[in-house]
Design a protein that fits this description.
Elements (H helix, E strand, L loop, with lengths): L3 H6 L5 H16 L5 H16 L1 H34 L5 H37 L6 H4 L8 H17 L8 H9 L1 H4 L7 H4 L3 H4 L7 H34 L6 H31 L18 H4 L5 H15 L6 H19 L3 H27 L9 H24 L2 H9 L11 H9 L2 H24 L3 H5 L4 H18 L17
């Protein structure tokens, strides 16, 4: 397997990726439309191989497993349906068919769960319990590129076929592209087959010169790069300096570190998602929008309707609702909710800090559910539009709750998170050392003001977008062409002048790539 540094060097916002994308886009439009899907699939596999050749073998195995498993499940369902038509519902043959189909689904999904469990927890369990495993095996347990994302797609595909909400895709190239499409391969979104596959007919007919599509694509891509290389990568060293040495800072700077990371991870992950959406538009493919101004949310439940939407909706449809959802009373609802967020935490990583992060969010949303249930019973629910002041205060409260939970996510371990929190509580301030701490974090005054200005710009943009009910790149399409062109030129200048570039003009690794 290639080293982590080599893998990072070729990620999404490097010149290496840009060159790969330009070549792929050019060849895509030179080829006849009937070859578009298979060509994109092959180029996606090539991109995976360039990142990590071992990941390609896992990806291809996943494609074959999904393709054959879906057909097997679909055929079994068709046979069961035929049996149901020919026999009475109570016929033992029909009951056996339903039961055997259920066992087939459990077998297919169970293998996926086992597969992801081995990769997610194999190394952690060995290290935690001192299990001696040959180094050659440990190196194979490193998470393959995009594994958590496309494996969840496979699980949802099997379940949808079982439920009768989808039919098995007989065209292997279509299914393979759905799993491997390179703009979403590294960090999602987690696409559903019924959203992605029907678009592939249009991919075979797509024409390059479409002014509306080019404008939408450029808006998403430029804004995504702005979030990533101007803000997220500028905040990254500041956050690292605080979290790597929490003992060297007082409570104020530790709180500041949590706040900065709250913006960093949002700009990093949302930046990736915007770029993925924009690049996909050029191929005629619309991806799921993964973020909708999450820090303007009015509750933690609302936050999860806006943050990593493809994951939260997946957990709702394939875990929360099958567990019973909110149909069996408030106690069962809270229990189901905690299970969902426990799984959410474990999906992000094996460490106790990720589990704690998930359970904290489970606690937040469960308390809101209890409160709402009580208000319904007492008639205290007051619907209606909030004023700007109330809107802002509730959003600020959600932001602070999220920032607290992010400490566990970022700290590296549960013990490190607790040490970090012990530096905040009880509150202690060292005013005499603030100048030294300030220079340690920001290095130069200009970095502080650039970071501050970037955060203000994103916050204002999200605020306006939230009030308008549309994400910023789409909001831009409502403006005149002159306004859009000015935005494009200004944004390109900002990226060149204020973007953070490392050795070889590559940027920092996307945070969510590791999941």
């Amino acid at each position: 397997m290639k080293g982590k540094a080599d893998r990072d060097r070729k990620l999404f916002v490097s010149f290496f990726f840009i060159a790969f994308f330009v070549i792929t886009l050019g060849l895509f439009y030179l080829l006849p439309g009937k070859w578009h899907v298979s060509f994109l699939c092959l180029m996606s596999c090539l991109w995976c191989a360039l990142l990590d050749i071992r990941s390609l073998f896992i990806l291809v195995a996943g494609m074959l497993y999904c393709y054959l498993g879906g057909i097997l499940l679909d055929c079994h369902r068709a046979l069961g349906k035929e049996s149901f038509v020919k026999n009475q519902p109570a016929n033992p043959q029909t009951d056996q068919s339903v039961e055997s189909r259920k066992w087939l689904l459990l077998l297919l999904v169970g293998f996926c769960v086992l597969w992801i469990t081995v990769y997610k927890f194999g190394t952690y369990v060995c290290a935690r319990f001192g299990i001696q495993v040959p180094e050659s095996i440990l190196t194979q347990l490193v998470m393959p590129i995009g594994f958590s994302f496309y494996l969840f797609q496979i699980i949802s595909y099997f379940v949808d076929i079982y439920r009768g909400n989808a039919k098995a895709e007989r065209n292997f190239w279509n299914l393979a592209l759905w799993l491997s499409f390179f703009p979403k391969l590294v960090s999602g979104p987690i696409e559903r087959e019924h959203d992605f596959l029907p678009q592939l007919q249009n991919v075979r007919k797509v024409k390059f010169w479409h002014t509306g599509r080019l404008s939408v694509s450029l808006s998403y891509v430029l804004y995504g790069y702005f979030l990533k290389i101007v803000i997220a990568d500028r905040l990254m060293p500041m956050v690292d300096r605080i979290f790597d040495n929490p003992g060297g800072f007082d409570s104020f700077f530790l709180i500041l570190g949590a706040v900065l990371y709250t913006f960093q991870i949002y700009c990093d992950f949302a930046g990736y998602s915007y770029i993925a959406v924009g690049l996909s538009e050029l191929f005629g493919i619309h991806l799921t929008m993964n973020f909708k101004e999450p820090y303007t949310a009015q509750s933690m439940t609302d936050f999860w309707h806006r943050w990593h939407i493809s994951l939260s909706s997946w957990l709702r449809d394939y875990l929360y609702i099958p567990l019973g959802g909110n149909r069996k009373g408030i106690v069962r609802k809270v229990m189901n909710n905690m299970i969902v967020f426990l799984v959410c935490g474990m999906w992000h990583g094996a460490g106790l800090n990720y589990i704690a992060w998930g359970l904290i969010h489970g606690f937040y949303t469960s308390m809101e559910a209890v409160k709402n249930d009580r208000n319904k019973k007492t008639g205290k629910m007051v619907p209606g539009k909030k004023g700007k002041c109330v809107f802002f205060l509730q959003a600020a409260g959600v932001f602070l709750l999220a920032a607290f939970a992010w400490i566990f996510f970022r700290a590296g371990s549960a013990s490190a998170a607790l040490r970090y929190l012990s530096g905040i509580i009880p509150m202690h301030l060292q005013f005499a050392d603030w100048n030294e701490m300030f220079l340690t974090v920001f290095d130069k005054n200009i970095e502080f003001w650039l970071a501050f200005l970037g955060i203000v710009m994103v916050s204002v943009g999200d605020w306006v977008s939230s009030r308008k009910g549309v994400v910023f790149p789409e909001l831009l399409q409502q403006k005149s062409s002159g306004v859009r062109y000015v935005f494009f030129v200004v944004m390109i200048l900002i990226l060149f002048v204020f973007g953070i570039y490392g050795p070889g003009y590559d940027t920092g690794q996307f945070i969510y790539m590791q999941f």
